[in-house]
Structures are given as C-alpha cells and as structure tokens.
Amino acid sequence: MTRQTPLHDIHRAAGAKLVDFAGWDMPLHYGSQIEEHHLVRRAAGMFDVSHMLALDLSGTDARTWLRHLLANDVAKLSTPGRALYSCMLNADGGVIDDLIVYHFTPVRYRIVVNAGTADGDLAWMRQNSSGFAVSLAPRRDLAMIAVQGPQAIDAVWQAIPGSREATQGLAAFEAAEFGEMLLARTGYTGEDGIEISLPATQAEATWNALLAAGVKPAGLGARDTLRLEAGMNLYGQDIDASVTPLESGLGWTVDLKSSRDFIGRQALETRPVTRRLVGLVLLQRGVMRAHQTVVTKHGNGETTSGSFSPTMNCAIALARVPRDVAPGDTVHVEVRDRRLPARVVKPPFVRHGKILV
Amino acid sequence: MNLPQDLKYTASHEWVRLADDGTATIGITDHAQEQLGDVVFVELPDAGRQVKAGEECAVVESVKAASDIYAPLSGEIVEVNQAVVDAPEGINADAYSAWIFRLRPANPADVAQLLDAAAYEAEIGQQD
C-alpha cells in the first residue's frame, strides 16, 4: 500500500499519471513532462514534495549536535532563517542522506530529509544523540509545495496574502517563518523559487491559490530532468552509503577547515579519493541512462543518472569516473549496444534558464 | 484510448496499416506512447533491410525509457520516416500518423497472424 500526500486527490482530479516513488503514490506528470520542464525554466511550476520529511530539532545542544552529525558546519549559519545543504555520513564517510537544515536560533532548527531515507535517518539521528540535550519532532502534519521558476516568487506573493512582506528581504537559501508556514528561497531545479512548508490542512487551498496565480503543476519527471540539468545529485542514484561526498562533486559541502570532529571525518581524511562525479554531454543522438559503462583513457566509470535534457535538446548524464578524467575530455558511453562519444563537463549544465556547458 | 478499428496490432504495441499495394506501414500505438511519456529520439532501420517477424528493427526513446520496436511481419523494409526522427514528439501528438517504417511482407498470408483492435485491447487489459 503506497502512502498518499495531502494533495493526492488534487493530483488525481488533474489527471496526473501517478507512480510509486519511495513508497509514495506521486505524480510523474500531468500530461507532458517536457512541457512541465520548460514551464519551470521559463515561467513557474509547482511540485508536491510532501513526501519529504521535515524534522523540528530543539534543545540546548542543538547546534553542538548538528556540528557532530553533519559534514557541513552549521556554525556558518548566523542569520535566522539561513539554510545549509549538507551530507549526513556514516563512520566510513559514506552518505546516509543529503539534507537541508534551516537555522532559526542556536537551539532551534528545521531539517528536511529525503522520503526514501526518512525512517533510517531518524533512527540514525536518535542513535547518535545520546548525551546531547536535543529533541527531534517529525512533522508528518505538514505538506510541502515547491514553487519554482523565474515567475515563482511573484506568484507566491500573489497567492499567499502577506507573504511578500515576509519574504521580499530574503536572499537565496534563506527562509522566513510566516504564521504556520515556512517560506524558503530554496529548491531543486536550478531556478529561483520558494518552497512552502505548511499545515497539511491548508495544502489544497494554497495549491489552488497558486493555480489561480498562474502556476502550473509539475511532476517528479520534470523535477528529475530539472535537477539533473542543475547538476544536483539524487540520493539513491548519484549518491548513497557506498560513496563519499568527495567522490560526488560535494567537496564544497564538507567542512574540513574547522577542528570539529563530525561523524565520518576521519574516514574522509584517510580514504583515498580515486573517483569523481562529472557531467557528460552526449555528442550524438541517443539517450544516456543510469548504470551505463563510461570508457575513458584512465579506466572505466559508470553513469549514475542520465536523461534527455529538454533545455539543451540532447542527452546529459552524471557519471562517476576515475579521478584523472577532466572537463573537456571526450569519453565513450555504452548506450545499449553502441559506444557513443560524450564530452566531460563540470556540472551544472543549466542554471536560471541558461545553458552553461 | 484511441484504437482505430481499421488497423492491425501486435502484442508488443506496434500498429500495422495494410495498403492496397501489399505494403504494411508500422508505428507504435497510442497506448504505447502513453506508457512511454514524451518521446525524444527515434532510431530507424535501414531501407532495404530484410527482417524476420519479431526482430528488433527500430528504437523509440522517451524521457523515461528506451523501447525496441519489432517487425510485425517478415519481409523487406522499403521506406523509413525521417520526419519522425526530426520531430519525435509527433508520436505523442498522434501515434497513428507518426509512422516509423514501411515493410513489404515476404508472405502476404502472414497478416492473418496480427491482432485486430478488439484482440489488442484484450491484450492490453491482460498486461495491465
């Protein structure tokens, strides 16, 4: 039995094609995945991301505990509402999950984790919290709507009275509490936008208000091609517990400068980095998919995500390859029964509607 | 679902339009395009190629997956549709006009083995 978000009836009524995603019955698309992709790049689209889990963290040791738990350093967060992307590692330096943490005060944070890993994350967090004065409250009473695209913020302001005053001063990666809502200038598409976290009971009304403001629904299909173009990793596909952030293009999220001892640090400092995650642009017609062999002069690698890029009108992929493979190299990808040439690039492929590679 | 009565079908979701000159035009069904999602790439067979019924001879790739297209009948590929390569989204817009290749059956009697619309509809029902 798959789980349903508070917006499930709305998706059905809108004719969404629903698929099982991490145990949740979620919209894949509402007609055309490619049209939804373009809408987010050019105007505004909204995604139901209520399957993701918000956790409220509080306690006098909240900050100290997060500095122990996460590879990125929450001490970087000083302004209230500031957000941080981080990996949570096991003792071997493998990625248990990637998450966003929002800082309100040094004793109060909000953490948002992936749906498929939520139960394991919570167990890991609890297991590693003994001796710390912290408490964690899973917020399954909340829904989350990600409004994304160049017109997204204006549309949110129009749909939610009073939200303009609450959010117009926000920089990227900052959030504001607004009544029972959290309005965050974050996302997973490479476009500007606002992620709205709100009581499940208000989800339908807010979704409908956003529709009235001109925002079109978009499904997980478009979300996947958008995040791939934006060079963002998908947990369970590009990263998992078998790889470290340093092999995943996420070195920038690992803080090794401070002297704090976070879980996985020792492994990261001793485990040799032999592979890296790069972007690939296919130079011929065809579509790259996950788990295809990448042949390079430094040895073989493997695609971790691959699809057709609607913005670039060709196939793109993320691939884990030997460390010495560099942007600008030409490699060959085994697409079905053929070896097709691809150019190595540094992700992102696309940001804010512009092709960067 | 759009399922023209005047076409023949295969269990692997090709449609077949039989012409008076004995040739068969082949594409993928509306059901198939709906399952695949947005089509982004079509790979055609070479004209002149001899194929056996059930042999892989073209590929339709969508945002979601690659799907092999099988020859519904044994025979010779006599024409391929370059227009569908240039505009693969035509398969989503109208699966029955966006044909992929045309074939001259080696044995015209083989067409009796193809499914009619009712039999194909029953086939889909079983697969779902």
UniProtKB/TrEMBL annotation, chain A:
Gene3D superfamilies: Aminomethyltransferase beta-barrel domains, Aminomethyltransferase fragment, Probable tRNA modification gtpase trme, domain 1
Assigned EC number: 2.1.2.10
Keywords associated with the record: Aminotransferase, Transferase
Binding site for substrate: 195
One GO MF term: aminomethyltransferase activity
Residues of the GCVT N-terminal domain: 7-257
Record field: catalytic activity: N(6)-[(R)-S(8)-aminomethyldihydrolipoyl]-L-lysyl-[protein] + (6S)-5,6,7,8-tetrahydrofolate = N(6)-[(R)-dihydrolipoyl]-L-lysyl-[protein] + (6R)-5,10-methylene-5,6,7,8-tetrahydrofolate + NH4(+)
Main enzyme class: transferase
A GO biological process held by the record: glycine decarboxylation via glycine cleavage system
Pfam families: GCV_T, GCV_T_C
GO CC term (a single one): glycine cleavage complex
Segments passing through the bilayer: none
Domain Aminomethyltransferase C-terminal: 275-350
InterPro entries referenced in this protein's UniProt entry, alphabetically: GcvT, GcvT/YgfZ/DmdA, GcvT/YgfZ_C, GcvT_bac, GcvT_C, GCVT_N, TrmE/GcvT-like
Superkingdom of the organism of origin: Bacteria
Its biological purpose: The glycine cleavage system catalyzes the degradation of glycine.
Subunit annotation: The glycine cleavage system is composed of four proteins: P, T, L and H.
Similarity annotation: Belongs to the GcvT family.
Protein name: Aminomethyltransferase
Organism field: Candidatus Methylophosphatis roskildensis
Taxonomic lineage of the native organism: Bacteria, Pseudomonadati, Pseudomonadota, Betaproteobacteria, Nitrosomonadales
TrEMBL record, chain B:
Keywords for this protein: Lipoyl
Cofactors named for this entry: (R)-lipoate
Record text on cofactor binding: Binds 1 lipoyl cofactor covalently.
Alphabetized SUPFAM superfamilies for the sequence: Single hybrid motif (SSF51230)
Gene3D superfamilies on file: 2.40.50.100
CC per GO annotation: cytosol; glycine cleavage complex
Record-annotated Lipoyl-binding domain positions: 23-104
Chain segments annotated as transmembrane: none
HAMAP family tied to this protein: GcvH (MF_00272)
Subunit-structure text: The glycine cleavage system is composed of four proteins: P, T, L and H.
Protein name: Glycine cleavage system H protein
Gene this chain is encoded by: gcvH
